[in-house]
Amino acid sequence: MPRFAPTAITGLGSLSGAGLTLPESMESMFRGERHPHPPTRFSTDHPVSYLVLELRDSFKLPLDESENIYSRTCQLAFVAALEALTQAGWDSETLRGKRVGVCIGTTVGCALNSDDFYRAYKEGSHPDIRIMQRFMRSNPAAVIARQLRLDGPVQSVVNACSSGTDAIGIGASWLRADACDIVIAGGADELLRLTYSGFSSLMITDSQPCRPFDVSRKGLNLGEGAGLLVLESEAVRGEKELLGTVLGYGSACDAYHLTAPHPDGVGLKLALNEAFTAAGVTPADIAFVNAHGTGTPDNDRVEGRVLSEVLPGVPFLSTKGYTGHTLGAAGGIEAAFTVAFLQRGEIPANIGFTDPDPELLSTPVTGNTVIDGTIALSESLAFGGNNAVLIFGKGDH
Amino acid sequence: MRIGIQGVGLTGGFGSGVDSLQAALQSGKVVTQQREALHNGEVDIYPAYLASLDRLEEFIPKRALRRIDHCSRMTLLAAHLALQDAGMPESERSRIGVIIASGYGPLQTTCDFLDSYLDFGYACSSPTHFSNSVHNAAAAHLSMQLKTTAPSLTVTQFEMSVPSALLTAQQWLIEGRVDRLLFGAVDEQCEVLRYCRRQFFAAGEQGPLQPLAFSTQSAVVGEGAVFLLLTRDEVAAYGHIDEVRLGNHSVAPLSLSDDDLLILGADGHKECGRWYTQAARGHEVAAYAPFYGSFPAAAGFDLAVAALSLRDNRLYPGLASTGASTLTAATPGELNGRKLACLKFGSAGEYGLTRMSR
Questions:
Q1: B174 CB near a chain A CB, below 8 Å?
Q2: Strand, coil or helix: A267
Q3: What is the pLDDT of residue A115?
Q4: Is A2 part of any domain?
Q5: How near does any CA of chain A get to the CA of B28, in Å?
Q6: CATH number of the domain that B33 lies in?
Q7: Which residue of B has its CA nearest to A131?
C-alpha cells in the first residue's frame, strides 16, 4: 500500500440532532448540549421507549417537504451538500463543465423499506405506487447529481455504519485517479421505524441518553442527519482556502460475525495500519481520535481496547452522545466534525461518560479539551464486520 | 493500468457456472420459468429468469447455510464458482478484496423483517432478519466464508450499480489496496418487486425480452449473481478491463470511439432505450439480456459475456427475439482482436462504459 498525496477539503456540511449546520453543531457541542427524546416522527408498540436524536422541529426539507417525491435521506444529503458547496464557493452554475463525482454512504437510504406500502400489500389492497416511485427516485448520490446536473462518477455506498467514512475514502481515490476534478462525499440517513425496531431487536438501544465508553453504557441512541465534504484536485482548488486534507484511508473486514465486532479488533487494527501507511504518519502524530463510540457494550469494549493498544495516550471522544448514531451518515458527520475540531484546535467532551470501565485501559476526554497537533483520525465500525478509518490534516488556519 | 479477469462464476436463469452460460450462448436457448403470485385473491402468472442454487453445497456445507438468505446464497455460489474457475487454492484467499454491486439488496429479507413486526408486534422484530437485511450482508457472508480480512464494499445505484462499483474496484487494484478482488453483482426476485413491476409496466413484463426494440417495453424479470476474479496481472485468463468511465449523457454527451463494438445493457426497459439510440448510433451493437433477464445486476452478466467472448475470440449471437432496432446489430463470429465495450444507461441518461480487450 503506497503513501498517497493529501486531498484538499474545501467545503464542509453537516446537520444532525446536534444542529442544522456545522457551525451550529459545533457551538452546541462545545456548550455540552444534547437533546435525546422518544421518537416523534413514528410510533410503535414497543414496551420500552428508546431515545433518539432527531433534527429540530424547525427543519424544513428543501426539495419536497411532504416526502412524496424524494426520501428524507436524499433531502438531508442535499442540504449538507449545499452547505459544503457554498463554503467551497460552488453552485450548480459554476460546477457546469466540471467533472464532479458524488459518493454518498447510507444504510436505509437505498432500501425498499416502507412499512406503509408493505402493510397495504400484505393486506391484499393496492398500496400507493407513488411510494415505490419515490423509492426508485431516491438514491442519495444520484439525487445530488441530478439536482445539480453533474457529470461524473456517482456512487451510493452501503457498507452499513462505516458507509460515510468509506465514501470519503473512495471519493478521494477518484480524484487521485483523475476520474473527476471535484467530489462531494460523505453520508446521509434518516430515522425510520424499521431501523428503530431492528436495533431494538438486537437489544443494543438505550432508553436513557447514551453513555459511550462509560462502565454503565447500555446501548446506542439512534439519530439522523448528513455530513458531506467537498474534495478538490489541486488544479481546481488553486488558491482557495484549504479547510483540511484527507491524508489517509484504510478499511478492513473482521470476517467474524454479521453484527458483532471481532473481540480483538482484528479488522480495526488492519484498517488503522492501512490508513497510517497511506497517510505516511505514525500513531504518535495523531492529535485526537474521533471514535465510533456508539455506547453499546461490544463496540466500546473492542474500540477502547484497540485505542489503548494502538494509540496509547492519544485523546479521544465519541460525538454520538450529541448526534445519536446516524448509521450511514455517521462517518460523514464525524469527518466534518473532525476537520472542524482541527481548525478550532479543541475537541468537546465525550458527553455521557462519567465512570471508567475497568476493562478499558483508556478513557475519553471529559471536558472541552485543547488539542496539540495538526493530524486527527476518525473511525467507523459496522455491521458486516466492516472497519474504516480516515486520517485528516489541518488546513490553512 | 489494465485489470485482468482471471475467473468468472455466475448463477442465473441459464444455470450455474461459466460453462452453462457458454452453452446457452451457443445454443441460443434459455427457457424462462413461470411463477405464480397471489395478491388480493388474484393469481398472477408471469415469466421469470430464476437462479439455481443446486451447486452451492459443492462449496459450503448445508449446516453453514442456516440463517443465510437467498441473496447471500446466490452470492456465495457465484463467488466460489469464480474462484474455482480461476483455480485459486483456499490458502490464497485470506486477502481477497470483495466489492458487490446490487440494485435492490436483499429485498425478500427486508420483507421478512417487516413481516416479523407487522405480524407479531414490534417487540417481536426478528434480529436475524434485520441483520441480514442490510445491503452489505452478502459481502459479509462472503468475507466470513473466505475468512478474508481485506477491504469489503457494497454499492447500490439501481441500474448503474455495476459500472459504479467497477470504477472503485479498478482503483483498489491500481492503488495496491488489494492484489486480488472478487467483483460481483447480485439481485433477487421477490413477489413485492413483481407486484410493483406489474403496476409500472402491465403486460410489458410478459416477454419475450427484446433488448434492441427500444420503443417497446419488453422487460422480463430476472435474478442472479455473477463474480469476476480480478487482478493486476498482465496475463489474464479471459481478458482485461481497460477503462471504466461514468457520466451523464444528458449533461455531457458520451463520445464513443469509431471502432467500439458495444455490448448494450439494454434489457427491455423503454425508459432507458432512448439513451442507447442516441449514444450508440452508427456503432455495431449486441445485447444479451434475453439470456438472463432484466434486473440491475444483469450489467455484471454483460461483463461476463464480454469476458467469455474475449477468451473465446468470438462474439456470440443474441437470441432471435432480440428485436428490430434502429442500431446496427453486430455480426456474430470471430473477434479477431477487436475490443469490446459494455455500455449501460440509467433512466436519466447516466451511463457506465467499460472497455475490455483480450
A1: yes
A2: helix
A3: 87
A4: no
A5: 33
A6: 3.40.47.10
A7: B196
Q: B residues 108-167 near A, CB within 8 Å?
A: 110-111, 113-118, 121-123, 125-127, 130-137, 139-141, 143-144, 146-158, 160, 164-165, 167
- Mention every residue, 6+ apart, whose C-beta is less than 8 A from residue A350: A212, A213, A293, A316, A317, A318, A321, A364, A365, A366
**How are beta strands B314-315 and A244-253 bridged, if at all?**
unpaired
Is the whole model's pTM more than 0.90, yes or no? yes
Give the residue from B42, B75, B125 with the most A CB atoms within 10 Å of its CB, the best one to mutate. B125
d(CA A153, CA A148): 14
Chain B residues whose beta carbon lies within 8 Å of the beta carbon of residue A386: 136, 140, 152
Q: Is A279 on the interface with B (CB under 8 A)?
A: no
Q: Which of A44, A115, A384 has the CB atom closest to B134's CB atom? A: A384
- Across chain A, mean pLDDT equals 95
Domain extent for B346 = 3-357
Per-residue pLDDT reduced to its tens digit, B186-238: 999 999 988 888 888 877 788 899 999 998 899 999 999 999 999 999 899 99
Which pLDDT score is estimated for B207? 84
- The answer, for B60 touching chain A at a CB cutoff of 8 Å, is no
Inform me whether the pLDDT recorded for A18 exceeds 90: yes
Rounded distance between C-alpha atoms, residue A249 and residue A378, angstroms? 10
Nearest-Cα distance to chain A for B245, in Å, is 8
Residue A225 contacts by C-beta under 8 Å, 6 or more apart in sequence?
A: A14, A15, A16, A17, A55, A76, A80, A188, A189, A323, A326, A329, A333
User: In the structure, what pLDDT confidence band is assigned to residue B320 with cuts at 50, 70 and 90?
Assistant: low
Q: How many domains does chain B have?
A: 1
| Known catalytic residue at A325 | yes
Report the gap between the CA of B106 and the closest CA in chain A (Å): 9
Residue A332: pLDDT band by 50, 70, 90 thresholds?
Answer: very high
Q: How many other CB atoms sit within 10 Å of the CB of residue B288?
A: 28
**Tens-digit pLDDT profile for residues B53-100:** 999 999 999 999 988 999 999 999 999 999 999 998 888 888 899 999
Ranking A225-234, B35-44, B316-325 by mean pLDDT, the lowest is B316-325
pLDDT band at B136 (very low <50, low <70, confident <90, very high): very high
What nine digits make up the cell of A303? 474500540
Q: Give the number of A-B residue pairs with CB atoms closer than 8 Å.
A: 211
Window from A20-24, A114-118, A257-261 with minimum mean pLDDT: A114-118
How many domains are contained in chain A?
A: 1
Q: Does the beta-carbon distance from B140 to A156 stay under 8 Å?
A: no
Q: How many Å lie between the alpha carbon of B315 and the closest alpha carbon of chain A?
A: 29
CA distance readout (Å), A300 to A261, A370, B30 = 10, 24, 52
Residue in A170, A164, A189, A161 with CA at minimum distance from that of residue A74: A189
Here the CATH number for the domain that contains residue A263 is 3.40.47.10
Per the CB < 8 Å rule, is A156 touching B130?
Answer: no
